[in-house]
UniProtKB/TrEMBL annotation:
Ranges that cross the membrane: none
Xref: PANTHER family: HYDROXYACYLGLUTATHIONE HYDROLASE GLOC (PTHR46233:SF3)
Protein name (database record): MBL fold metallo-hydrolase
Pfam families the record matches: Lactamase_B
GO molecular function: hydrolase activity; metal ion binding
Keywords (A to Z) from UniProt: Hydrolase, Metal-binding, Zinc
Organism, as annotated: Microbulbifer okhotskensis
Cofactor: Zn(2+)
């Protein structure tokens, strides 16, 4: 499995291209906007987009979803159904943040804890990690020890929990009970900022380092 990050929107959200080396079939994870930038990165690598994967319903992660899905006839997988209220509010979020207007959409498949999605021939495990939003999911490719965690965890920080249906304790539990068991070696792509590993965050992240919990 290969990946490439494309920072999009004024929030510099890490949109990711994920592809299967053998088939060149690819998924775009969290197309927040700037579709021209995303599609240029796809073309440059000779990839064939087959689906859109979403971690959660925030504008900067899903703003380009409806347009991209329509343009290329791509199915949409994720997030968990509990984020539907965020997706329904997309036009309002766009107005609030001064984004170009966006359309509401309905994913072809809502995801749940324990589900699996595929990119080409490669399987990714799905973990439900509520706290930042109630329907947030993360994707894990076990073979390459790579996780795409959206706004659950960042290098040196964690997702905000002051939004409707956000909850700090729930987020901490998601990180400790759903992410850490995947292993210290796992590299992760956060929704914003640089990549890191779970082991590094367990050591030095002021919000979730092991020493904080004794
Ligand atoms: Zn978010
Ligand atoms: Zn975000």
């Amino acid at each position: 499995m290969q990946f490439h990050l494309v920072p999009v929107t004024p929030f510099q959200q890490n949109c990711s291209l994920l592809w299967c080396e053998d088939s060149k079939r690819a998924a775009v994870v969290d197309p927040g906007g700037d579709l021209d930038k995303i599609l240029a990165a796809v073309e440059e690598r000779g990839l064939k987009l087959e689906k859109i994967l979403l971690t959660h319903g925030h504008l900067d992660h899903v703003g380009g979803t409806a347009a991209l899905s329509k343009q290329l006839q791509l199915p949409i997988e994720g997030p968990h159904k509990a984020d539907d209220f965020w997706i329904q509010q997309l036009p309002m979020q766009a107005q609030m943040f001064g984004f170009p207007s966006v359309e509401v959409f309905t994913p072809d498949r809502w995801l749940e804890q324990g589900d699996q999605v595929t990119v080409g021939d490669q399987p990714l495990e799905v973990y439900h990690c509520p706290g930042h939003t109630p329907g947030h999911v993360i994707f894990f490719h076990r073979l390459s020890q790579l996780a795409l965690v959206g706004d659950v965890l960042f290098a040196g920080s964690i997702g905000r929990t002051d939004f409707p249906q956000g909850d700090h304790d729930t987020l901490i539990r998601s990180i400790k009970e759903r992410l850490w068991p995947l292993g210290d070696e796992v590299r992760f792509v956060p929704g914003h900022g640089p990549m890191s590993t779970f082991g590094q965050e367990r050591q030095s992240n002021p919000f979730v380092a092991d020493k904080r919990f004794g």
